[in-house]
């Protein structure tokens, strides 16, 4: 392969980690700091932080390259872990939706119902009675259609969920697992927050800064613009952690696992504010699903503002596993292969084909680290009798760069 020798560094890495998102970076940090072993973490993108990557754009607005990322969790342990690497800013996300000719809160709450139907429901009980009168009984709740129709009835389902879901996934809600639309609750109170988790916070100086701190350890080297296929045979390593798409790792042996993609259109406006809240959804109209404005989310004060339109797409980078039974069956076949593959760990949203939020991926990575501690003995390097830091040469693919 084409390659160039850049600098003398560990000749045999204890661990090669593919993907510098939450899954890969958390494991790199744990292994480096708790096992004192050497880690080379690579990413084929030109940056760390995976899909949580944020940056200041040309206008100076802090924005999220891969769409709005709002941190929320009920886990104290996950917040405690990440708090080693960032301070936080409190932020509760709010979402409005354009429904017919009105702008109403999403998730559906009492305010939403009153606005859409010209009602004045005053209590949870009244709102519940209203919803019950519209809900359709569904014998067994299996799909993303069942779960909504059984709670709010067909009309609200069609206004809020059918169009959005069909755009977002390229599938009718009846073809998707119930877990997808179950992410969005229905409320009878007037709570208009998108999430109700105990912790709703944003990294004070952004995700990328937090990842820089996670990866700032002398046992960790970061290589960017480097695809696993280009480096796997030239960078000696003892164990591998893979956080990319699992079907790709196995050269699509059983065929492609479906992932849904998005095209992001980022637009900067020379005005302080573009919309009233962080995200406005367009369930009934438009080719995009939602528009998000970062300054609400980051708290940045700036004369300009940047927004992102999300256009769902069948092609492009894999962003979402698509939860439905046949895909889970195919994933299980890849998972069986993964279980038979020695010295390789599969972690993260793409490698375990799970529609996980950031906190869940952090939790999964921390759990995997505990398993590693229990099952993978510390080894002694035959190179120099130590665990790590052997001298040698690092061959890099053309275009790759070391971050540290
Ligand atoms: P990723 O962040 O995808 O990282 C995997 C990395 O591996 C990537 O950088 C990729 O380039 C690299 N890689 C893959 N294959 C290779 C290879 N062969 N060689 C080298 N590198 C490779 N979660 C929330 O909690 N809140 C939100 O508000 C939220 N909003 C989201 C909005 C959008 C539009 C999307 C798409 C996701 C959102 N998420 C949100 C989910 C969140 O992005 C994920 O949970 C999280 O980023 C997953 O981390 P990961 O490490 O598993 O994967
Ligand atoms: N959804 C919808 N209408 C909405 C918001 C969400 O139909 O106004 C459905 C849609 O299928 C979406 C899913 O609920 O993919 C989960 O929404 P969430 O906001 O959690 O999506 P994410 O932020 O992960 O893209």
UniProtKB/TrEMBL annotation:
Enumerate the GO terms in the molecular function aspect. flavin adenine dinucleotide binding; UDP-galactopyranose mutase activity
- InterPro entries, alphabetized: UDP-GALP_mutase, UDP-GalPyranose_mutase_C
Task: Tell me which UniProt keywords the record has, alphabetically.
Answer: FAD, Flavoprotein, Isomerase
Q: Which cofactor does it need?
A: FAD
EC identifiers of the protein: 5.4.99.9
Provide a GO CC annotation, any one. Answer: cytosol
Ranges for domain UDP-galactopyranose mutase C-terminal = 159-355
In terms of Pfam families, this protein maps to:
GLF, NAD_binding_8
Tell me its family. Answer: Belongs to the UDP-galactopyranose/dTDP-fucopyranose mutase family.
Instruction: Cite the NCBIfam families for this sequence.
Output: UDP-GALP_mutase
Name of the protein described by the UniProt record? UDP-galactopyranose mutase
